[in-house]
Amino acid sequence: MSSPENAKAPREMLTVEQAADRLSVSRTTMFALLRDEVVPSVLVGRYRRIPADELAAYVESLSAPEGG
Fold it and tell me: pLDDT per residue over 1-50, tens digit each?
């Protein structure tokens, strides 16, 4: 029996291509961001997926003031 506290909405997982499209960058640039661990990702089976909330956090970090 699952309780409401344990019920979480599923995380939206993006392909590399979808994430690159959202950032308006090339697939190669997106792979570089993943390789350098600038944007976190996970393996699902043999496929690389980027959690949408992690991508949003990366975008927020780009507009954050430095040294704040």
Answer: 555 555 576 789 999 999 999 999 999 999 999 999 999 999 999 999 99
Task: Give the predicted TM-score (pTM) of the model.
Answer: 0.78
DSSP codes joined into one string, 3-46? -TTT--PPPPEE-HHHHHHHHT--HHHHHHHHHTTSS--EEETT
d(CA 33, CA 56): 14
3-state secondary structure 36-67: CCCCCCEEECCEEEEEHHHHHHHHHHHHCCCC
